[in-house]
């Protein structure tokens, strides 16, 4: 791209900015004049009310930096210990600070009292002073890059760590530490951000972040706002046949009898086709997205469980006390809860007036409506609500993948949601309600008969068209089913595998397939639920579940248990030697079955 004008080099510097963590030259001093220019650039940053709330503490003393390094190491390890296993392993494998690898460090602070009580722009928002200091950090970063200096940001400080850092540097108690920066010359600047190169996260495309006139109308300047659902569907292409063939060929040449890994080999081939690479990346880290919503059809007596259990279970997920949390901890996966339609108040913004925290760890507040309407009396939701929930699912998939996850797992929570799932499965497979309606939470025969009749009456009322997936969702679906369908579509557009859980996931996958048939190629059925609709959905999609453990809990639990199969399949394809590379003699003559090279 060519940039004309007096600032034509600015964009080059801007896009070349890097948070540098490796490759510093600790014995090459930073010229005082160059450092002064860099600090002058930082000091020229805009600030609220022209208050210039920043100060810069230059730290060269090796002893002090060693103390800071030890402090950061403790806090980094505490952070790692709080992460899912796969994330913790990834964190420990990458370098995240260069306190001792650079000749100097710079601490940027903010004084939110500077300028007095009447500072312009700070009234009612005192935190704007701290935000202003972040602009000074950005200026400093850009100027350092222009000087050929690398800068790395260190952020592993809890509140007690910041207090300890303040004592080490004699910081007045009213100052806030905005950034601890490592500054020095480097051997070379990486072509891409180091965290992206390490696979920790991906850069979000600009088109995801630009909105026209109001939030949600995404589009670059000069372009028509895009239709998120249509754009996502258009981005879904068939899985890669060449990579599948390459995976099958490699499996046949690996040091084992052909086909001896059974269906694990099919999983490996599937993963290669999804990623368009052989071997495919190991699907970790993985995240479970538990979409939660309530259902108006609860009023028809389809379950003995009270509706408020949905919100109560969401709180349990967030506290880490559910089965999905236990399984995820064991398997090193992340659990996030997506509120697309819970009747109770969960969203931090909704709770602000009550003095509740503005952020709940693990909760993604994406509420479209406070539950659906009773589908036996009218549509469960409007088409606009159904679309909004699907697009919320697409956004969740995008965010989780951009955050570095290489596998997504479907989870669901919603009292009465198996009733809506049965209705959706009946719509898209043509199966009779009595064939796909199950006992859900363990209902008795009388309630099952009533539930089946409810599904039948809803279908007779609306006559949903399987060729109109949005209309079918609106008529008889749930907000969580719409969100899960969006998750499948979003993952497929990004070529990331989706592990499907039980009956609700099956219903959502049918919806996704109606939008984009090629999306099925990116799905793996994690387990066969005892809910009869689960098997019907899997068969219709052409997916053979990996496990059959007699489970029917939902939450993502069954799919989680199958995650090691995906990871093992990818690992085997990448790590197991071939006969020629290992110098092992292959079997001659006869068929390909039988014992391995080392057995008889």
What key attributes describe this structure?
600 residues; alpha/beta; disordered C terminus
The first-to-last residue Cα distance is: 63 Å
Give the helix tally: 23
Characterize the biggest β-sheet.
Answer: 6 strands, parallel
Radius of gyration, in angstroms, nearest whole number: 28 Å
Structural class: alpha/beta
Mean pLDDT reading: 91
Helix content: 40-55%
Provide a brief overview of the structure.
This protein has 600 residues and is α/β, with parallel strands linked by helices. It is built from 23 helices and ten strands.
Reconstruct the topology from this structure:
Elements lengths: L9 H7 L15 H12 L10 E6 L2 H21 L2 H9 L10 E8 L16 H19 L2 E6 L4 H11 L5 E11 L8 H4 L30 H8 L5 H13 L9 H13 L10 E8 L15 H11 L3 H9 L2 E8 L6 H4 L11 E3 L17 H20 L4 E7 L3 H13 L3 H4 L8 H18 L6 H8 L2 H15 L4 E3 L2 H13 L7 E3 L6 H10 L15 H19 L3 H4 L18
Parallel strand pairs: 5-6, 5-8, 6-7, 8-9, 9-10
Antiparallel strand pairs: 1-2, 2-4, 3-4
Helix pairs in contact: 2-5, 3-4, 3-6, 8-19, 9-10, 10-22, 12-22, 14-18, 14-19, 15-17, 15-20, 15-21, 18-20, 19-20, 20-21
Question: How is this structure best described in words?
Answer:
The chain has 600 residues and is of the alpha/beta class. Helices cover 44% and strands 10% of the residues. Helix 13 links the parallel strand 6 and strand 7 (363-365).
């Amino acid at each position: 791209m060519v940039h004309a004008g007096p600032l034509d080099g600015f964009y080059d510097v801007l896009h070349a900015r890097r948070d540098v963590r490796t490759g510093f030259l600790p014995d090459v001093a930073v010229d005082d004049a160059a450092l002064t220019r860099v600090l002058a650039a930082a000091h020229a940053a805009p600030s609220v009310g022209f208050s210039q709330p920043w100060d810069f503490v230059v730290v060269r003393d090796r002893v002090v930096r060693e103390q800071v390094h030890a402090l950061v190491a403790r806090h980094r390890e505490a952070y790692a210990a709080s992460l899912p296993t796969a994330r913790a392993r990834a964190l420990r494998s990458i370098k995240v600070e260069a306190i001792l690898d650079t000749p100097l460090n710079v601490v940027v602070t903010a004084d939110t009292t500077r300028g007095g009580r009447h500072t312009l722009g700070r009234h009612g928002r005192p935190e704007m002073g701290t935000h202003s200091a972040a602009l000074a950090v950005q200026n400093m970063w850009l100027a350092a890059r222009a000087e050929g200096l690398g800068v790395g940001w260190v952020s592993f400080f809890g509140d007690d760590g910041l207090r300890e850092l303040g004592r080490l540097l004699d910081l007045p108690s009213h100052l806030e530490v905005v950034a601890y920066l490592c500054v020095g010359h480097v051997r070379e600047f990486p072509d891409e951000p180091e965290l992206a190169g390490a696979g920790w996260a991906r850069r979000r495309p600009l088109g995801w972040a630009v909105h026209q006139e109001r939030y949600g109308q995404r589009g670059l300047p000069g372009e028509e706002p895009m239709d998120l659902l249509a754009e996502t569907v258009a981005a879904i292409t068939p899985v890669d046949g060449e990579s599948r063939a390459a995976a099958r060929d490699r499996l046949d040449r690996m040091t084992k009898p052909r086909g001896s890994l059974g269906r694990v080999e099919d999983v490996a081939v599937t993963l290669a086709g999804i990623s368009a690479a052989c071997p495919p990346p190991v699907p970790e880290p993985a995240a479970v997205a538990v979409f939660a919503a309530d259902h108006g059809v609860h009023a028809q007596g389809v379950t003995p469980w009270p509706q408020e259990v949905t919100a109560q279970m969401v709180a349990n997920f967030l506290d880490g006390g559910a089965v999905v949390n236990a399984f995820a901890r064991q398997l090193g996966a992340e659990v996030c809860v997506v509120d697309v339609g819970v009747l109770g108040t969960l969203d931090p913004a909704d709770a602000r007036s009550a003095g509740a925290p503005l952020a709940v760890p693990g909760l993604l507040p994406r509420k479209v409506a406070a539950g659906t309407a009773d589908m036996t009396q009218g549509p469960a939701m409007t088409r606009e609500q159904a679309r909004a929930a699907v697009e919320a699912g697409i956004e969740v998939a995008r965010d989780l993948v951009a955050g570095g996850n290489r596998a997504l797992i479907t989870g669901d929570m919603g009292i009465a949601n198996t009733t809506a799932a049965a209705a959706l499965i009946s719509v898209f497979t043509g199966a009779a309600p009595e064939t796909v309606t199950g006992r859900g939470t363990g209902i008795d025969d009388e309630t099952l008969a009533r539930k089946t009749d409810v599904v039948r009456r809803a279908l007779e009322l609306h006559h949903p068209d399987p060729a109109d997936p949005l209309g079918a969702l609106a008529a008889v679906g749930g907000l969580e089913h719409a969100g899960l369908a969006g998750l499948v579509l979003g993952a497929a557009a990004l070529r990331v595998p989706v592990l499907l859980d039980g009956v609700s996931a099956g219903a959502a996958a049918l919806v996704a397939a109606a939008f984009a048939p090629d999306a099925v190629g990116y799905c793996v059925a994690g387990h066969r639920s005892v809910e009869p609709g689960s098997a019907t959905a899997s068969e219709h999609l052409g997916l053979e579940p990996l496990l059959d453990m007699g489970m029917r809990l939902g939450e993502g639990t069954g799919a989680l248990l199958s995650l090691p199969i995906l990871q093992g399949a990818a690992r085997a394809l990448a790590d197991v030697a071939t006969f020629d590379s290992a110098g092992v003699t292959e079997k001659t003559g006869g068929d390909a079955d039988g014992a391995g090279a080392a057995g008889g």
